[in-house]
Amino acid sequence: MFTKVELTFSRYLDLELLEKGITFWITRVHTQIRLKRSKGWTRPLEAIVDTGSPISVVPQKMWEEIETKPLAEDIMRGIVPKEECFFPVKIAELNGFLMDPKQESQPITFLSYLAPTDKIPLILGVESLLSKCTLYINFLQQKGYIEF
């Protein structure tokens, strides 16, 4: 049996580019996730679905409240290859399930970076999470789903 979790979209203007006379829309794809705690699950958390991120990333305030199985320490690198843009992270196994207002997926164990800051959003990346599903995104109609 397959579970299809609907995705949501947000779209807003980049105000810095607008000041320069350039109209540039930023579109994000979102889902809700609940993460395993020592007793029960978190409330539904808004997460960005990011096919450009090789791994999921959880902000510090969130991961301090959930069950994690630390595996190693690593360095998170972004698109800018400068050392001052790197920051240390822990890599851990987490458990969670995706949901929309109508249904939820089965619990999934996945790898994630545990960020040392809250200045980043909750990101669901490819390895061991999105790689376990079918992802459908139609930006023209702003519709999408994840199917497990």
What is the count of DSSP helices, taking H or I runs of 4+ residues? 2
- β-strand amount: over 45%
Return Rg in Å. 16 Å
Number of β-strand runs: 11
State the CATH architecture. Answer: Beta Barrel
CATH-assigned homologous superfamily: Acid Proteases
* Overall tally of structural domains: 1
Order of helices and strands: EEHEEEHEEEEEE
Round the mean pLDDT to the nearest integer and report it.
95
The class by helix and strand makeup works out as: mainly beta
Low-confidence spans:
none
Euclidean distance between termini CA atoms: 9 Å
Large-scale geometry: globular
CATH fold-level name:
Cathepsin D, subunit A, domain 1
The major β-sheet equals: 8 strands, mixed
Determine the fraction of residues in helical runs and give it as a percent range. under 10%
The CATH class, by name, is Mainly Beta
